[in-house]
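RECORD TYPE: inverse folding
INPUT: structure tokens
STRUCTURE:
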């Protein structure tokens, strides 16, 4: 599985992200998203998991938890 890892978008998503992440299977956002629209744009492009960061408001926190613990191809992942 190919993962596109991103963080600290702070409400701005550079359009180049879609070129860089063209070949990935999933996108992981590691916090400080900024706005729900970032989550929506990434999620419309590729399956997206993430966590909220200290700058994120309740709208982002409703969609992403503080911690994500899951397994990916036999590897335990903890994103916080």
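DESIGNED SEQUENCE:
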């Amino acid at each position: 599985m190919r993962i596109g890892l991103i963080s600290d978008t702070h409400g701005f998503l550079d359009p180049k992200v879609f070129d860089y992440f063209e070949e990935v299977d999933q996108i992981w956002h590691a916090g400080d998203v900024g706005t729900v629209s970032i989550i929506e744009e990434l999620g419309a492009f590729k399956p997206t998991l993430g966590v909220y960061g200290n700058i994120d408001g309740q709208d982002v926190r409703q969609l992403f938890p503080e911690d994500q613990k899951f397994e990916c191809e036999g590897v335990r992942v903890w994103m916080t």
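NOTES: Residues 36-45 form the longest helix (10 residues).
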